[in-house]
Design a protein that fits this description.
alpha/beta; seven-stranded parallel β-sheet; four-stranded antiparallel β-sheet; 11 strands
């Protein structure tokens, strides 16, 4: 509200919100004058997102999540947790099981947050473990699956979690875990959506021998960015000019103020790292490292 109070009295104020609870309405009443209210009731086709709920035993959530990853093999997956400590612990547990998982929560500094999102969006990580607050406003393309590690007590938040998959006319998958004492949360979501969900037992999930959910890309971090006048074309040129590195195996390039990231197909990542470390970008050498 401090920002609003410093703006001119004569102004146009537009308010956009994914949800419209009483708190948001209160803000609108205070800062807007007879605004036009435009709402979209639904943004997802019901048959585009397959929702499956799994009843699990207490203390078996992590084990069941691993079984879900084995069974469904999603190339990109967001796992929602209710608490930031839980998100980090779960990411660490999945790392120990051989999965490339990154955590996104409120304890991360902006630089760390940017790095996590870059790796997930450029396909250098297959699994993003996130809290609702940390994931707010993030638009992830081609997200194959959403997993509710724990059910949220708010059915509206559940809908927003699930709605991150199955976008742009594509099919999506939403998997939710709950224990017997949380059955009332499932009932609330069913009532909110006026539907009945399929409930499965975790014993129906198939584990695969020697299974690895390895992301197809690796991210290289370059210690130079916009303030150094580094552009995406400069990085691409440094990688492909006078080398036998195919341009088609170079993925998304993200430029920040003092740092840049480039996604490289996993099989040529070592070669690309050597080229950038020993070579120059726009005639200047930069420190380059591979993110884990």
């Amino acid at each position: 509200m401090q920002i609003i109070h410093t703006t001119p009295r004569q102004r146009q104020t537009l308010l956009f919100s994914a949800t419209y609870p009483e708190e948001i309405k209160g803000i609108s009443d205070e800062i807007q004058n007879k605004p036009v209210d435009i709402r979209l009731e639904t943004t997802h086709s019901e048959n585009k997102i397959k929702q499956v709920f799994y009843e699990v035993e207490k203390g078996e959530r992590t084990k069941t999540l691993i079984a879900l990853l084995h069974h469904y093999r999603p190339q990109s997956c967001v796992v929602f947790c209710n608490r930031k400590q839980q998100a980090q612990e779960l990411a660490d547990a999945l790392w120990q099981e051989g999965f490339h998982a990154l955590a996104l929560h409120g304890d991360l500094e902006q630089k760390e947050r940017d790095q996590v999102l870059v790796q997930f969006s450029n396909k250098s990580s297959s699994i993003l473990i996130a809290t609702d607050v940390a994931a707010r406003g993030i638009d992830i393309k081609d997200l194959q699956a959403v997993v509710n590690f724990e059910l949220t007590p708010d059915p509206e938040i559940h809908v927003h979690r699930v709605g991150r998959t199955g976008r742009a006319g594509k099919e999506g998958l939403a998997l939710s875990l709950f224990i017997a004492s949380e059955a009332h949360k499932v009932n609330r979501i069913e009532e909110y959506l006026d539907t009945t969900f399929k409930i499965e037992k975790s014993t129906s999930l198939k584990l695969r021998e020697n299974f690895k959910l390895s992301p197809p890309m690796v991210t290289l971090c370059i210690n130079g960015g916009r303030k150094n006048k580094v552009r995406a074309g400069d990085i691409l040129g440094a990688l492909t000019a006078n080398t036998n590195l195919p341009g088609k195996q170079i993925g998304k390039i993200d430029i920040f103020d003092t740092i840049s990231y480039v996604a490289i197909e996993r099989q040529i990542a070592k070669q690309a790292l050597k080229i950038l470390s020993e070579g120059k970008i726009k005639g200047r050498k930069y420190k380059v490292r591979k993110l884990r």
